[in-house]
Amino acid sequence: MAVSRAKTARRKPQPIPEPEPDVVIEQVPSLNELGILNGSDKSSLGHGFLRHYDRLFRDLRAQPINILEIGVGGGASLRMWAAYFPRAIVVGTDPNPDSRWHAGDRRIVETGSQTDAQFLHRIGSLYRPTIVIDNGTHRADDIVQTFEHLYPTMRHGGLYVVECLHFHAGGGADHWRGGATAPPQDFFLILARLAGCPESDVPFDRTLSNLTDSVEFFYGGVVIKRRPDWAASDPIALHRPLVARANHARMWINYAQLVLNNGGDPQEAVDACRNALVQEPTEASYHHQLSVALERAGDMEGAMTACRISIRLHPAFRMFSDRLAGLGKKRTETPAAESVGDG
Fold first, then answer.
1. For 145-149, what is the mean pLDDT?
2. Taking residues 141-160, what's their average pLDDT?
3. How many domains does one find in the chain?
4. By residue range, what is the domain housing residue 155?
């Protein structure tokens, strides 16, 4: 049966409709644009911080959070934050009573100095900020003290920012030192080291480092992220029954590291390592982890014995021999440790 030509003819392509000329797509101002419109020196016409903040704060933009900025000045930042975060309460602190003129429309100004530890603790506990920005005196001693008092009061998953670290390099660095013995970037570098390598043997307040998820530096600033809610629970108690149920050598070793990294009982870490070694007694890395746990538990002789075993099992791995040398040096420096433990 013949097919009609009308059915087989190709259809002509239809033209793509042109957009209506009077349709305007409304664009939300970027943080940098809001900074310029409000006269903030954090914008690209100043220090250039806002391109980092836009990336860091974007996911929080629609949230009903509290933002705390140390230093009000002319109020430009408070107005900018209130515009960028339409549901946030923006709190500024400043020792100048005249700064209260910048309050209003979700903006609160608290009069007080960041040199006052009681004031910092009260403000942090009252507002429980999700974002803290230290744009205060810029003195090294004030920066560290402010962080030590405000950071523990923040909400989990929050972001703590310190601005103008570039003041602490070059010819003017001594002017900004205050009563501190080192520039603030050194303090936060140690915190970054502990966030990445919690077993690092450096003197530092471990309650602060245990709260920290990450540390990021950018030109003139640093942002410290607190651990989120899922990490705020007791990780040791959470994992203990699972590890016992699994009864797997590698999980016992990982659990030992978890205990040590989260301020747990070093003896529990020692026991976990020994559980692993029952299953795999010739694994050199497990003896190395046992050495670390024994040292934390105060058993220096036991730590050295475990380290020697790891060397015997894997003599080519220099880290083991370096650790043994370090343990020997510590024992020499602290002879009292020789009487601790039975090896």
1. 95
2. 95
3. 2
4. 31-231
